[in-house]
Each structure stands twice: as C-alpha cells, then as structure tokens.
Amino acid sequence: MEDFDDHSHRLTSVCITDDGTMYTLEDDSVPQSLQSGDKQVLTLESLKDGIYRVISSAAPLQRSAPAAAQYSSRSAASMAASYLPPDERSLLVMRVVYDNGEPSCTRECIERGLWEMQSLSGGAVQGSMTDLFSNNSYGYTTFPRELTRVIDVPMGRPLPSSASGCPYSTEKLEVDRIALETSGLDPSTFHHKEYFIPWYFGTCNWIGFANVGCRHPLLTDRSRSGNCWSFLRTSWPSIRTHELGHNLGLMHASLGTDEYGDETSVMSNHAYWSGFSAADREHLGWLPDEHIYDYSPLWDMPVDVRLHALHLPPQHQQYAAARIRCSTCDIYGVGYSFVFVSFITPSSYFADLPARFHNKVFVRLQKAHAQGRPYTGRGTVRMAHLSQGESYTLQSGHTIKVCHIQGGTAAVAISSQTSSVSREELCTKGVYPPLPPMPPPTPGPPQGDICTNVCKANRERYASE
Ligand SMILES: [Zn+2]
Questions:
Q1: DSSP letter, residue 434
Q2: How far is the CA of 54 from the centre of ligand 1 (A)?
Q3: What residues of the chain score a pLDDT lower than 50?
Q4: Which domains does the chain have, with CATH numbers?
Q5: Which of 326, 274, 268 is nearest to 127 (CA)?
Q6: What is the distance in A from the centroid of ligand 1 to the CA of 311?
Q7: Which of 21, 132, 154, 310 is least buried, going by the fewest C-beta atoms within 10 A?
Q8: Rounded Cα gap, residues 385 and 267, in angstroms
Q9: Ligand 1 centre from 208 Cα, in Å?
C-alpha cells in the first residue's frame, strides 16, 4: 500500500456491506492494513459529496489473499466487480415527430441500428451499438432486447424555430409527457432515453448530446431510472455508442490538444467502428483490477509484463493492461492521473482501425476524475502507439518499452526514473511480476453528478447516414 501526499485528488475506495450497499470512502482515512477483499467492521462518518470517512475499524474478520501486484490501487471498479449482478439496461428510443419534420431514420432504421450487425464507412467490422457494449464490457453491460422500446412521439405542432434557440431541455419534458399520453410508456421508468430529432431543430448544431455519468456501471442503486438521456440528429451507430458512453461516465478520447483526436477510441468522433480503450474499460469497471498490472512508483526494478490483446476477455497468465500512477503527468494541464498500457490487434471492433494502429502497444493517460465525482471521468489522452522495439518515456521518468510482439501477446518492460537499467537493457533485465488469477470480469459504485457535454463532429461526415 502506498501513501501519496497529494490530496488534491482522492483515490476512491469503496466498501460493500453484506446486503450489497456500497460506500465510497475518503481514501486517506482507510487504514493502511486494509486490502481489497478484506472483511471487517468499519465505523463511517458521512462527508460531503457522498464520500465517507473511516473513523474506526475492528480487527479483520477475514483477510484476502495478498495482492499480486506491488501495491493495490483499490480502484472503485475492481472492488465492486464481483459483488454486482450483470449490468442490464433498459432503453426507450423516441422518434420525435413534428408536423413539418421528422428524423430521417425510421423506426425500422433505428431497430436495425440497435440489433443488426452492419459495417460503417465501408469497413470490415460488422457491429451494432448493443453488441459493442456487450463485447467491450466482456458481457457485463448489456441492452437486452426485451428491455428496449422504439416509439414515435407525435408532437402535434411544428419544429422549434431558430428563434427558440436550441430548446432540447424544454422539448425533452414535452416529449416525455406526450410519449406517456400516446404510447402508455413512461419514459422515466427506462434507464436510458434516446431522443431522435430532425436534423433542423432550432439552432442546435451538435450531432449528439448527452449527460455524463448518470448511470455508471458500478452504480449500486439500480432502481434509479429516467435520468440518462441523449439527443441525436443522426442515427450513426458509433455516435449513439459514444453518447451512451457519456451516460456511463466517460469523457472524450483526445490526442494532444484535439479533444476528439484519438481516432482509435469510440469516444473520439471518427466514423468507423472502434472500441472503448483499456483506460475507459477500467473506469467503467469492465476490467477487473486482478487483470491490470500496477507498477508501483516506489519500485525501481524493471518489470516485464505480458499483455493480451484488449478485445479478448481476461486471459490466464497474461494481463489486460498495465497501469502506472503518474503524479507528474501534467501534460495538457492534467495532473495526478494514471497511465494505461494496453495491446491492440486489428480484431473484433478494432479491425477497422487504420493500419498504423495494428498490433501496437498503446500508452494512454487516464485523466484524473473531478474531486468527489469518481464516476465521471475526465477522458483520456493518447500518448503513444508503439511497435516492437520502440519505447516511450513518461514525464514522470517511467519508460515503457515493447520487447516483443508475437502470437497475440505483447511483452512490455516498464522501468522507473531511478532504475539503473538502461533502456537498451530493459528487455533483458526485467523481472516478471506475479501472474494474475483467472477471475470473472465485473464491476461496482455511485452516481456522478450530471453535467452536460456537447459533441462536436464533422457535420458532413455524419450527415449522410
Ligand atoms: Zn462526446
């Protein structure tokens, strides 16, 4: 266990009672002796923002096995992983029909986008929005067909004019009211609501628009519904996926100063199929901690980590990603974050990526989340994509070197700033960390505050769906 002296961003720990209630803990207050999986009586004090402080703890009732890594990061995700049932989500899709305009995508077209495997931009990947969630979450977060409805909502009046600005929030209330009246379906009983609106809708100029962090997969209070929404002026499935990604708690995949510039992630604005990054999968609890190798900042021996391709579910004796805590990775004004190292092959939803991204080890910054809002991420920044033999040194001095890429596995060496092993020797002097166990993936906790996010995109690119 580590002590970090920067209190500007708290790590989130969670504890879960026998009846499944989850408490987010102020990390500083958690006794150093506690490890993931321990069972123990804690006395908590409620702080603001839904965070609790540990006031006292009794002797452990049950100790977990020692952590495999040098230290346990105790992310909220992994803690809850094995405690929650599958994350099944209901979805109401509403085609908002005005007297003088309606969405170009018919109900059949919307249904096809949900369920029918289709290629995008002439790519080889056959995918759908619902399949992508199921696939990228390794079966954890799903949109079952029986929990989905697609309806027309006849507004009985003309479209909002440009004089009314972009009145999505007032229209949302009206659409919900009319949907209940005309279809008998109560939108507030669905986890997610998608509003398909005509292309010309007041002065709205986004392609898609969604609230962020309204239903993180680790949320324990699953009874809450109706607070996730997205507006869509296009039916492009990857845009719908991107907007639902916001609902789950993700922000954008950036490259340099281009907020949408990491074209290898569905949280960018590119028009082909791609997937969620390792950092995003961790944030959403889809990747359990046992399958992420944590490189300790205090560890100055190089390590040699075997990574399997990210599209595969957790594998025996290989890690899905390596994670480096980087308190000095303040590029682009972001500090105290994690760096994720993962391996992507042109398979599954990554098969349409441009060739320069095939069989590469990706280095990504996972930006620190806002204080007190552990379920709303701040997005990722792609730092590098490396071929065999290439290396990348973080601002913190950690070096990541790709030793070997073979047979769907990447061998990656990581060293610290203080390591005496040179970059050239990295791949021969590294030690192997303990290998991960074979566990079920799954996740766990609370509710981020709702904030809004506007998705900009190249209008022409998505206009011709
Ligand atoms: Zn967006």
A1: P
A2: 36
A3: 1-12, 20, 36-37, 63-82, 441-465
A4: 12-81 (no CATH), 87-281+445-463 (3.40.390), 288-429 (no CATH)
A5: 274
A6: 22
A7: 21
A8: 17
A9: 7
